Amino acid sequence: MLDDFLVRAFLAGTGLALVAGPLGCFVVWRRMAYFGDSLSHTALLGIALGFLLGIDPQLGVVASCIAMALLVVGLQQQNRLPTDTLLGILAHSGLALGLVAIAFLDNLRVDLMGYLFGDILAVTVVDLAWIYAGAVLVLGLLVLVWRRLLFATLHEDLARAEGVSVLLLRLVLMLTMAVTIAAAMKIVGILLITSMLIIPAATARRFASTPEQMAVLAALAGVVSVAGGLWGSLLYDTPSGPSIVVCALLLFLVSLALGGLLRRA
Question: Which residue spans traverse the membrane (predicted)?
Answer without folding.
Answer: 6-29, 41-74, 86-108, 120-146, 166-193, 214-236, 242-262
